Amino acid sequence: MTASRSLSALIFCLFSMTCMAQDQLNLSGSLESNVNFYMRDTKIGAANTPQYEHQLVGTETWLTLRAQVSGFDLGIRYDIFANSALLNPQDSYTDQGIGRWYVGKKIGKLAILAGHIYDQFGSGVIFKAYEERPLLIDNALVGLKLTYEISPTWTIKGIAGRQKNLFDLYPSVLKGVNIEGFKSFGEEGKLSIAPGLGIMHKTISDQQMDALAGTLSQYTPEDFIHEAPFNTLAASIYNTLTAGRFSWYVEAAYKTDDVIYDQFASRTLWTGVPSKGKFVLTPGHLIYTSLSYAGGGLGLTGQYKRTKNFNFRTDPFVSLNRGIINFLPPMSRINTYRLTARYSPATQELDEQAFQFDATYAISKKIEVLINVSKINRPDATENKDTYTEVFTQVSVKKPRKWTLLAGVQYQEYNQELYEGKPGVPSVKAVIPYADYLIKVNQKTSFRTELQYMSTKQDHGSWVYGLEEFSISPHWLFELSDMWNIQPALNADGTDKTEKLHFPTAGVVYSSGPTRYSFRYVKQVEGIVCSGGICRLEPAFSGFKFNISSNF
Amino acid sequence: MNTHKLIYGCLLSFVLCLFSCDEQKRIIEPFVPAGNRTILLEEFTGKACPNCPKGSRELENLLQQFPDNLVAVSIHAGFFAKPQVPPLGQYDFRTPEGDVLIDYLGPPLGYPAGDVNRTPVSGEMLLSSNAWASAITTQIQTAPSVELSIDHDYNSTTRELTVTVNGIGKEAVSGDIRLSIMITESGIVDAQIDVEAGGLVPDYVHNHVLRGMLTPATGASISNGLTLGQTFSETYTRTLDTNWDAQHMHIIAFVTDVQGNNFPVLQAAEIQLIP
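^ Those are the sequences you sent over. The predicted structure of the assembly is below.
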């Protein structure tokens, strides 16, 4: 069914039910719209994309409408991309249409949902359909979901459909089933388990197999794959055990033989020239566990993850953040400050071993300390084995209703060659002290100040970042910031860079009820943008950004 | 409780069925090229693109495997082909025709990207390098609807190149039949970023570089449809730039059948400028 037919059918359905319904119709919706005005600045590298060259303005809009009537849930979302850089930051994308529609109904213990479905099994390692607008990830499963409530604490759900590919669908078919529940023991319920089992099944289409076989048929004998499966099965079993103040989550997943693209695998070409990157036939596995303790002002969490060949995609030929069926949880801290978040590691689906330890302790009601350590490597790799190390500390001191101070130091070792595909560059080693001070002048007015310094000799060199925010609640927020390349790294030939570039930002945000408007002048340095463990390199930005978001 | 048993039973059956099903896997046979179809591979690349040499190696790999059935051109266009900060060599390989073609056929979602016979695969015109082989395998299995031959004359003193492309319809085709003539140069030594070589390679050898076209970028209209046995002969002239090495140049000619947003290549041919 084409998008316009879907829209017509849904609107017809909506109006029909509204006319016939005895019950009241509840309508709600949301709007999010971004407008970027591009102003070329070759000094910072904000140039050489169609937006800077001649398009000048790019926009993205998502308009959602939801209706509830007679026990039915209906929804539709219209997406518009006009000269947008979201799909490919180095290019322009224009298209529009229905980004999502769904119809749902609960009948007794059975819930039916048809259309674009967002959901996940367990932590998502074998299936997660989700939307992440900053990276234009929209992995909705277009099909049917049935959820049955076996008991108040046990549910089973089944899904079937195809994954969304912008305004189209991938040809492969996905099916899955997930059962999960909860059981407590003892009278006080201090001991409980929350087990689950998920299974996903992928069948690639004849057309996809023809394309794959066409490529494999031309491999040299050294790399040749003699048979390729249409079907791949991924299963995961997981459980959360809670015992008093302890909680232990463990998940193990296995994927049967699948032809996946291994970008690091050595390949022999017919020319005799060695190269890297080829399709391989391999199973995959993943183990993820998280043990935490919380009580008495102390919070401890330790996590471990081992991933091997857990690339699970709807199409063997897609890469980057396209066509991903699952979601591998990131194992580094999700940082938010401008400089502490500058280098973030993307999850490595082919080979990754990661540890993370996080501890928080409330010394008193006013003082809290935090330390987070993460270490990621690739045990089976021949090069770029050590990929990421981070130590993050923070002290939080506050005087209730008066002021709050957050301060700490972060240390990072970030394998830029691996994560950003920049050949030959050394790993970035950075030390970043930072402070964030919020003072409330009165009930309506507050100031917030951020100061950060990144000391590194790699990549662009050392940075200073300062931000001043002035807030008059409930409507206004003004911000002024600058990121200054105070000590640029040396040029490739060892000479000093003379220019110490500034990346200023100035903006105003106005909020009125559920609607928020922001208008900002932005100069942004090239960097990695991540969502969860999925990251991509974004080129520098120079220009104005206008955003409106609203719920109604 | 009976309902629960039924659900668990169904779930168990589903799992057992999935694990026990013995599927008929696709047997992969080595592909041996045959026939007289000549395929056009247009690769979009750039000197600042770290992964593009991998695409170029794949292109050479395919040329080795399809010596009589494939012609290739490397079009330096798009983000990575634009003059970047030094040191990235001395030449700017971009051409006005390349800039038109990247808009006409793209833009690509990533680099290297290329089209095979200007025929989309799963709705995508520009394919990543690991998908070129399969697209060639598909295209090569159909007989060409046009036969092409190239005659040329080159005056090394005036550097004037005259190219005549002769064709004959092998079956009836409708649409706007267009002829494109490209000239490419190989063996150009200049810088290139190469992820597999660990960074900047100052003496990288660039091959099949599009230097220009004798026809408009999207082709010159020569006929409204073709019938079986219908012939055509088109002649174009261009003076070569003095910086180009004629000894390492090739002439590529191909015919496209333009019908709205579809413009597949019907047949391609290539000859050396100085044999």
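Residues 20 and 70 of chain A are 9 Å apart (CA to CA). Chain A touches chain B through 62 residues (CB under 8 Å).

Shout if you want it in another format.
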